[in-house]
Specification:
Blueprint: E1 29-38, E2 41-50, E3 53-57, H1 58-65, E4 72-77, E5 82-87, E6 104-105, E7 111-112, E8 117-120, E9 123-124, E10 129-132, E11 135-139, H2 140-147, E12 151-154, E13 159-162, E14 172-177, E15 187-188, E16 192-193, H3 194-211, E17 215-218, H4 228-238, E18 242-249, E19 260-262, H5 272-286, H6 307-314, E20 319-326, H7 339-360
Parallel strand pairs: 1-13, 5-8, 14-17, 14-18, 18-20
Antiparallel strand pairs: 1-2, 1-6, 2-3, 3-11, 4-5, 7-10, 8-9, 10-11, 12-13, 15-16, 19-20
């Protein structure tokens, strides 16, 4: 944020390795047959399509991963209502894995939001999930990301591919969570310090990209103080394929609202950072966000956070800064006031980055 901006945001980090509330009840449900290429082997998941997202039975995934990279064991503690996954553990089949079902509509009252806790290697994790016929179903992409297993969607073949997205082969992305630690960024009357909001979105984005097989470098950890100079020097030394910096906006008047993306000045009339900014705006608009004009700005003093864009341009690396919402605005802050909406923001950035790399190919 600019030095004149002020935000406060005390929010639980929504990265894949911290707990979040249960998923809301879906508006539509279908029994579904999901084709997948699992470590090179064609596979069929008998899953459910809930609000256009694919949910797979946990034991089915464990059964397919058995003896392969990403294998895990599954245990259930009924008293604590806790599902426990242990990576590298041996899965004990129960005989009901991947039971076929006929695709078609499914009654919504049979889809429940679970009240159970999920632990992966003893760490509590939030993943979108539902309880159907007594079994836990998880979003396939989220589950693979939490397990560190690359997964991507092959649009041409209309199937999920476990093993990484080829557009990220050999690619490195630097994901920057703005501010942090002693530098809280701007303050919001309703949410608290900006730095926590930035980290929540950036850490989820990093996890999604890693799940696609991308090499991701994060500029800071949770509550870590990292100077702008250090970030700029890291970009110069690393020379990644892309820099994405996550911020959230504010203004002195508290009247501005909507999503704003900053691109590099050299791309004002066309170029890779402008293209990514346009793709981000498309994704944000699809979520119903008002979208502002793309900004090209340089501070002559050289001590503002736009320095990330200048540092990246100096080593011919495309870079953007995303400002998803003005959280000092009396209504705009509500676009980021829940873990689910922060996840939607991170997912939108992820989709834009995937499309951008696809277009580079």
């Amino acid at each position: 944020m600019k030095p004149i901006h002020r935000f406060t945001l005390l929010l639980l980090c929504l990265c894949l390795f911290l707990p979040l509330p249960a998923a809301a009840a879906p508006a539509a449900a279908l029994r579904y047959t999901q084709s997948a290429l699992l470590y090179g082997e064609e596979t069929t998941f008998y899953s459910y399509l809930l609000d256009s997202e694919n949910y797979v039975r946990l034991r089915d995934v464990a059964w397919y991963f058995w003896g392969r990279p990403g294998a895990f064991s599954v245990d259930w503690d009924p008293e604590a209502r806790t599902v426990m996954l242990t990576t590298g553990g041996e899965y004990m089949a129960v005989g009901t894995e991947n039971t076929p079902h006929e695709p078609g509509p499914f009654p919504l009252d049979s889809v429940l939001s679970p009240t159970s806790t999920l632990l992966i290697d003893g760490q509590e994790v939030f993943l979108r999930s539902y309880l159907i016929d007594g079994s836990h179903y998880y979003n396939l992409r989220d589950l693979c990301a939490a397990l560190g297993v690359p997964v991507w969607w092959d649009e041409t073949r209309r199937l999920a591919v476990v093993g990484g997205n080829p557009v990220f082969e050999g690619k490195t992305i630097l994901v920057d969570a703005g501010h942090g630690g002693r530098e809280q960024g701007a303050l919001s009357e309703w949410l608290g310090p900006e730095e926590a909001l930035n980290y929540a979105v950036a850490s989820r984005l990093a996890a999604l990209l890693r799940a696609d097989g991308c090499n991701v470098v994060e500029t800071r950890g949770q509550d870590e103080t990292v100077s702008l100079r250090t970030r700029m020097e890291r970009i110069t030394a690393l020379r990644p394929d892309l820099v994405v910096s996550v911020h959230h906006n504010a203004s002195d008047s508290h009247e501005y609202f909507g999503a704003t993306v900053l691109a590099q000045i050299g791309d004002m009339y066309g170029g890779p950072s402008l293209l990514l900014a346009e793709l981000l705006n498309e994704q944000y608009a699809a979520l119903g966000r008002p979208v502002n004009d793309i900004l090209f700005r340089q501070n002559a003093a050289g001590n503002d956070y736009y320095g990330l864009l200048r540092a990246a341009a100096g080593v011919s690396v495309p870079a953007v800064i995303s400002e998803y919402a003005f959280i000092d605005h009396p209504e705009d802050w509500m676009a980021v006031d829940s873990p689910e909406e922060l996840a939607a923001e991170a997912d939108a950035i992820y989709r834009a980055v995937v499309e951008w790399f696809s277009m580079q190919e």
